[in-house]
Amino acid sequence: MADAPQLLLGALLFLLPAALILLLRARGKRPRLPPGPPSLPLLGSVVWLTNSPAAIEPLLRKLFARHGPVVALRIGSSRLSVFVSDRRLAHAALVERGAALAHRPALASVALLGENANTITRASYGPVWRLLRRNLVAETLHPSRVKLFAPARAWVRRVLAEKLAAAPPAGGGPVVDTFQYAMFCLLVLMCFGERLDEPAVRAIAAAQREALIYRSKNMPVFAFFPAVTKRLFRSRLDKARALRRRVTEIFLPLIDARREYKNKNRNGGGEAKKKEETTFEHSYVDTLLDIKLHDEDDGGERSLTDDEIVVLCSEFLDAGTDTTSTGLQWMMAELVKNPSIQEKLHSEIKATTGDDQEEVSEEDVHRMPYLKAVVLEGLRKHPPAHFVLPHMAAEDMEVGGYTIPKGTTVNFMVAEMGRDEREWENAMEFSPERFLPGGDGEGVDVTGTKAIRMMPFGVGRRICAGLGVAMLHLEYFVANMVREFEWQEVAGHEVDFAEKNEFTVVMKKPLRPRLVPRRPRSSTATQ
């Protein structure tokens, strides 16, 4: 028995290397997650102790500089969020393996508010999303449908010109409010098929914006421990519900009026009905009233509820108003700051349109390469959104050599890609010429199908459905505003490109230019 300790020691010495080998192999099989700051139980990444989730972009820039183009943050006890800043990795993930990232993560705030997630931006990748998106693209945003709203765009152009012309002669008045109002006029008409008067449009705009801004600023807190935060911040949920009820109260009469209009035409056996001057023959609501969803209760089909239609109308207005008005403000600010570029654009407009034309037509803008270059450069340098809407991994996948576990939220840095000094020459300089032949942006495809250089509308299967109409609106209104006015900088209100996060990334100090008419005013806008 005296040899027992020696035998035990020998056995341990023999087994220890084997145990170490097994341990190393087990560690080697663990998924290699993207790097990021350490996490604490329940809290998540420790950076939340000193950083606000609302100011995530500067934090991410520091993390990218330290760890590379793929980083991870943990929100709460389990939710992992991955952020990608490299355009090639974005293309591999969103285009080459698009189906794996076509889902959207569930938002705790939506569930807490009891809202339906059946919208184009929030719905999971599946039959409901495909139906809603196909309806929007085919029935409202298809070029043949968009053309039906050409008279509406011409009316809004006149409204915009009238409002801008009424600004103080010495300049210095903010123009972003005018841009927002004009875009609401257009999108409200496209949505509800009715040209409303100014008080009605402003009531819709106020209700929509207040609800949107409130939610974007106050709802992210519910991503942290919703079981706890729903009690700590109950007043925020109550306020959000009240703001949603206000929107519903405004929208329902408009939806009911459109339902009645459709029923009258249908009951008339297809005969054309005499319409009011302010009523359009087509609207987004028309298409929503015709949609049939699969009813999971009885296996049949059902129409959308009024609440579902209200949420889809809100989505339609949000997607097309703030983003476009924000883009317009940034582009006009660059033209104010760069008068030589503005004059070059004006020269192209004069060469393309006749002096006797009332407007730069939609056909005209398609024949203006420098105009398109100005708009693309504005979207590259100043994308209205600096992130895409978040994606969710439907399966375990690899991005940049790292494992992205199923269920992980994945987002992509839109502004970082468009401003990457390694990809763009003098990236922070506003130079539309880069998108002309010979420039470093020549032939850029904003859909990112073949390669991503910039992605202001996202890319892949969840690319913005309104890309085409957004480009049309930006080109059309920029061209007409430059044709009508010379945009000048005002002493004391110099252009400042500092940014501020709202629903979109806006100018911290709104643009306040002097507008000098280039030609006599001859047309008036009627409400």
TrEMBL record:
InterPro entries, alphabetized: Cyt_P450 (IPR001128), Cyt_P450_CS (IPR017972), Cyt_P450_E_grp-I (IPR002401), Cyt_P450_sf (IPR036396), Plant_metabolite_P450s (IPR051103)
Record membrane topology: Single-pass membrane protein
Pfam families: p450
Binding positions (heme): C464
The entry's keywords: Heme, Iron, Membrane, Metal-binding, Monooxygenase, Oxidoreductase, Transmembrane, Transmembrane helix
Cofactor dependency: heme
Main location class: membrane
GO cellular component: membrane
Keyword Transmembrane: yes
Localization: Membrane
Gene Ontology MF terms: heme binding; iron ion binding; oxidoreductase activity, acting on paired donors, with incorporation or reduction of molecular oxygen, NAD(P)H as one donor, and incorporation of one atom of oxygen
Record's keyword annotation contains Transmembrane: yes
Record family assignment: Belongs to the cytochrome P450 family.
Name the record gives this protein: Cytochrome P450
